[in-house]
Design brief:
39% helix; three-stranded antiparallel sheet; single chain
Length: 450
């Protein structure tokens, strides 16, 4: 064991002990998972020591954020969309590429590890990336260095540190310490898949809920709580009751008890009326839901949160506004793939290729054709052009199209269509042979003769 690893492990142990002791004294132990450590430069320090409330008064964390329907919809939409995409392995052969029968295909598309299917693992990693800024998976290898499993790890249970450098000119290298109830271990960056969100600074990415949507989510949380309390109390504003003449204390107490039993709701203490006697006027003590524009405010928060995640609002149920991605399901789907998923997919591919293959021979690339395809009519027109026809060169083979539609190959379907006769540029589009000198009109006079 090197001196650096020993020193880092000691620092981890001391940090955990100090953190737990400090939180035990403050009554916030539940904010820190067992054996969890967080670098002081991380935004997650706010979670450890009790995150400051937003301007709206709510505390925004991954747990509280996922209780907001707009956040849940955005995260689940992006994560499940990426999990659906096939991730084939290709091999470069000169100027072309072909699908490779590679052992890693099963791990990336079917099963990460015995407890993780590929779909659930990708959803977990993308969710961690969006909510906490980074998604981590430990690469389990055999003695030959080949990957045998990928184990997703909760972001709050991973500590990332830069390895010591002798000069600022040296390239940075990271080391990762994973810990759980069974203990901890430290590995080099080559044995970790690290999927950062937007804004990666060399160590961590930016969390959407802490940077792009923190106040928006805080307002949404408070709006949900306020709406729940408002309707649990019957949806009635607080009022003052006017009596024509003076009421004794006993009469006022009896009236209040009867009022609360009838109209108090789950939060009865907030519905105890103020009694005004001897001609004092009645007035509403709180604004109604319409006056507060509660519904409009909650609708706007859905749009604000969707904007932070880069999700078109109509894809998370907000359909009152027109989409800026065009009209029709096809245009909307293409816009979502290009402008929302595109950046995430590129970061994922780069990390997989450089950590798993470490060569230009093999690489992975997400197949987004399923998301980019239109309806049956549009697909038919596209495949018709791709296969080619009279006077038009095709760029796809019949069996390639059948493979995309999960159909078996047919005999002769591996030949690319090549038109035998080029299209005529003449009028009518008929293939007429050009006239030869012998075909000239014999009765026509030679040039220069009358």
């Amino acid at each position: 064991m090197s001196a650096n690893i020993a020193r880092n492990r000691l620092a981890i142990t001391v940090g955990v002990d100090r953190g737990v002791r400090a939180l035990a004294g403050s009554g916030s132990v539940t904010a820190l998972a067992e054996s969890e450590t967080v670098p002081s430069s991380s935004m997650r320090m706010l979670e450890v020591f009790g995150e400051h409330a937003t301007a709206a008064g709510a505390r925004v964390s991954p747990a509280t954020s996922m209780r907001v329907s707009a956040v849940f919809s955005c995260v689940s939409l992006i994560a499940s969309a990426i999990a659906q995409l096939p991730l084939p392995v290709y091999e470069r052969q000169g100027e072309v590429r072909v699908k490779a029968d590679h052992d890693y295909w099963w791990l990336l598309n079917e099963q990460f590890a015995p407890a993780w299917t590929s779909a659930t693992a990708w959803e977990f990693l993308i969710g961690q990336m969006l909510l906490r800024g980074d998604g981590y998976a430990y690469i389990q290898r055999n003695r030959a260095g080949q990957m045998t499993a990928l184990i997703p790890w909760p972001t709050e249970r991973v500590m990332v540190l830069e390895q010591k450098r002798n000069s600022p000119r040296e390239a940075r290298r990271l080391q990762y310490t994973f810990h759980d109830d069974e203990g901890y271990f430290t590995v080099d960056q080559d044995d970790v898949l690290h999927f950062p969100g937007f804004g990666f600074n060399g160590v961590h990415g930016l969390s959407v809920i802490q940077w792009g949507a923190r106040n928006g989510i805080g307002i949404a949380i408070q709006g949900d709580d306020h709406a729940g309390k408002f309707f649990s109390e019957g949806g009635k504003p607080e009022v003052a009751i006017k009596a024509a003449k003076e009421m004794g204390v006993a009469a006022q107490d009896a009236f209040r008890d009867a009022w609360v039993k009838k109209y108090g709701g789950a939060q009865g203490n907030r519905r105890i009326p103020l009694i005004l006697t001897e001609g004092l006027e009645i007035s509403e003590l709180t604004m109604s839901a319409v006056d507060q524009q509660l519904l409009e405010s909650r609708q706007w928060q859905v749009i604000d949160i969707a904007r932070a995640f880069g999700v078109p609002p109509h894809m998370v149920g907000e359909t009152t506004k027109a989409s800026s991605f065009g009209t029709g399901i096809e245009a909307m789907g293409i816009g979502f793939v290009k402008y929302t998923l595109g950046g995430h997919l590129k970061r994922i591919r780069d990390e997989l290729n450089r950590k798993l293959f470490r060569t230009s021979r093999f690489f992975v690339e997400h197949n987004v054709d399923g998301f980019m395809a239109g309806d049956s009519k549009t697909q038919g027109e596209y495949f018709g052009k791709a296969l080619g026809g009279p006077g038009a060169q095709g760029w796809m083979k019949v069996n390639e199209v059948r493979r995309l539609k999960n159909l078996p190959p047919v005999a002769g379907g591996d030949e690319l269509y090549r038109p035998k006769d080029p299209a005529s540029p003449g009028a009518g589009g008929k293939n007429e042979p050009p006239k030869e000198p012998d075909d000239a009109d014999p009765e026509a006079a030679p040039a220069g003769e009358e």
